[in-house]
Amino acid sequence: MNSYLTRRHFLRSSSACIALPFLASLGFRRFASAAPIAARPKRMIFLAMGWGVTNETWYPNPKQTGAEWTLPEGLKPLAKFQKDITLVQNTYHKHSIDGHSGSTFWLTGANQYGMPGRSFHNTISVDQVAAEQFGRETRFASLNFGNPGGEGGHGGALSWNRLGKPVSELSDPVAVFHKLFSDEKTPLARRQAELRRQQSVLDTVLDEVRDTARGLSKDDTDKLNEYLESIREIETRLAKENEWLTVPKAKPAKVIAEPGKGMGGEQEMRLMYDMMVTAFQTDATRVISYRQPVNSLLRSRGVNLDGHSMSHYDMGPRREASQTRDKC
């Protein structure tokens, strides 16, 4: 059986099995019939910088086009890759122009008030759209990372599912390390039994939902449909876990030592970058998002100011004095 067709895509009896058509309501995605992924797979990574970047050190001269544009100070570490970089400027989210919701709508471009009667609305983020296609071939459809302090500027998560709900992030470098590289110590039979138990619970819930759905109002029907979509996402995840249960995790060419507790700032970010590169090299995933720390990074660089103050207020001499004092 195709590993991407879960048990709910068939009607079963004791003596027959009938395949269902491609029904959107059963979770078939628009990418289901897409052409096979090329031998050299595409990969995507989205790095959020919390409170943003400074105009004077980040943006190059827009009049310089082609491969010979001058790198500003903030992009100089990428100098050896300059000819491989395409920089896009002067783009804005039509519905997200205030200074406090950048990360929330950065990968969606959604209108917060786009749903009548609701004070908040979001849509699926671009990384999750990509994961629906690229993630069919890998152990993890996507990897979504945060940071231990929950830093990252105003706003919420980077990644959002089709319901406009935030995708959970792994925020501890230790947890990221074990997710990517550690072998599962629980016996295979026990893990298989646990997956069967979870699937059985979902089947029971779905049976109860069918009984509840009769006679509901439109608003309640919409809420129920959201709930069913969440169930479908859980089913997809369980099916994927089952598919990879017996597949050992790929070992990286470069040995990465398990991180210690309490790591932060620049040290944490360097390790996270190493692990993200390795995740691509071992093809554990092809889609990553990372909400990087800000305050702990500043502290590790000897800056005695928080990201909010540095990004919101023109402190001029105070900012320079803070950096000088901490370096003495």
Write a structural description:
This protein has 328 residues and is mainly alpha-helical. It folds into 2 domains: 40-183 and 257-293, no CATH class; 184-247. Helices cover 36% and strands 6% of the residues. The chain contains 10 helices and 5 strands; from the N terminus they run E-E-E-H-H-H-E-H-H-H-H-E-H-H-H. It has a 3-stranded parallel β-sheet, with helices on one face. It has a two-stranded antiparallel sheet with strand order 1-2. Helix 4 runs parallel beside helix 7 (265-281) and helix 5 runs antiparallel to helix 6 (218-244). The protein is globular and about 65 Å long. Residues 1-37 and 321-328 have low confidence and may be disordered.
What is this structure, in a nutshell?
By secondary structure, the protein is mostly helical.
Based on the model shown, name its key terms:
three-stranded parallel sheet; globular; single chain; disordered N terminus; two-stranded antiparallel sheet; mainly alpha; 328 residues
Distance between the termini: 66 Å
**Helix/strand class:** mainly alpha
Mean pLDDT metric: 76
Tally of alpha and pi helices:
10
Report low-confidence residues grouped into runs of 5 or more: 1-37, 321-328
As for the number of domains, it is 2
Q: Helix coverage percent of residues?
A: 25-40%
| Order of H and E elements | EEEHHHEHHHHEHHH
Which descriptor suits the 3D outline? globular
Strand order of the largest sheet: 3-5-4
Radius of gyration: 23 Å
Estimated share of beta-strand residues: 5-15%
Biggest sheet record: 3 strands, parallel
- Give the strand tally: 5
